Amino acid sequence: MSSVLWSCPECKKVMQRKNLYPHLRVVHFYTREQIEGMKSEVSRQAAQEGAPPYEEVICPLCEERFVSHKRLAAHCEEEHADEGADGEPQNYAVFTVSFANKQEFDRWLDEQQQESGTTFYTRSSSKLKGLMELRCNRAGKYVKRTEDRATKSKRDVSHCSCFLSVKMEEDGSVHAEGCLGHAGHKIDRALLRLTPSQQQFLKGLLEEFTPDYIIKRLRRDYPANVSRLHYVTKGDLWSIVNRFELRPGFRHKEDMASLKARKDEGNPDDGIRLLELPEESTGRGFRMIIFTRNRRGISIDDTHNATRYDLKLATVMVMNERDAGVPAAFLLSGSMTAQDVEKLFLEIREVVPEFDPIQVVTDEAPCFYNGFRAVFPNSRAKLHYCRWHVEKTWQRNANKLVEKISVMQANVNALVNTDTEEAMELLTAINELVSEASRIGLTAIKGIAARPELTHVGGKPKLTRVQLYTRQQSRVTRSALSHGRPDSDSED
């Protein structure tokens, strides 16, 4: 039959091929699956007769046209064996394989895709006839499906020599014919899809490790030119999490609705003891208390910016049987006051009525200890401030004092070089303050001193003479100032 005219398999009416499929659908009530099967059969017959199939295949290297991917592969083996994949030699041999069942075929296909750097997509299929045509995902026409965001296609060429024609028999066996050599594009494993076995492997890792650790491990264990796993991103891992439902606490896409659903379930193993939803969109009024397994001892502190919301996270740390600190309870709140902390300890008292720690360790913020004492007023616990927090606060305040002294010294220098009555009055006042500070022993402002020979009364300072004041170049470092001792008292 001519490549232009075809006969209907039902009524033998001759018509153009473009009219054959509407005819089968309208006149003979063919289903969509039957139409697809007929398209595959027409293409197969056209290839056997040497006529162009339903879609012409064009060589991406020399633009020669062929009737099938099989003939394109044979052409590439003869003409482009050493230059096919962007200069990388390829094996364009067409092979035929058979398998006893689809499971064996799927395992083989998974291995071949990883080894050859290939991802197949289904070009056409027919369940009725058991036919399936697989093509390289780097070939084809890109159709943009959204205008809301910028997108980029992985497809570089219109046709690639890599293909697979699959036939599934009624007895379950599978026969495949194809070629795994690529033409016209570089083999980039970063653009491949994750195979089913790779997805299962990542699923197992996500059940035990954090995404950052997984990515670091994959970069180390899998070379870039060998496996797609080398290029795994957090986006890939997030897709695996959603696909395999690895979010045990997830109930709803809205965070607050998900938390409320978990609280309403009343699962004692969930750990949520108290949930108060926010009163405002800023998160104000939100409180959530979470318990882990009971342990002994207590240390409490809060953390800012723990989530994408403007919330604070307070963690109660306890000592386990190995004297190691482990988290036992959490308070996630829009504010961190003594009243908020009190609610946390109310839940602790309900779970452990006999709770009576010996020591309470916290930073200098009073809300934690005040909240604890409000619930356990008769506790024997002694308060210990964290030395690290106290030292940081001391250094921060000392740094502020140093900055103020530097500003005052700069102002004095400016006044000294100003020949006005107002400047003289200010300098006299500063001199009195320095004298008083020296009398009571304030070394922090010892860096400003008067020149005794120029403190006479009644004389107006002249700029041509020696300045009235000079700045004592004290080598007082900030660290020394924070400990209250200067390194040197020498004058320049």
TrEMBL record:
Pfam families: MULE (PF10551). Residues 59-80 form the C2H2-type domain. InterPro entries: MULE_transposase_dom, RegFact_GeneExpr_CellDeath, Znf_C2H2_type. It comes from the Eukaryota. This is C2H2-type domain-containing protein. It comes from Haemonchus placei.
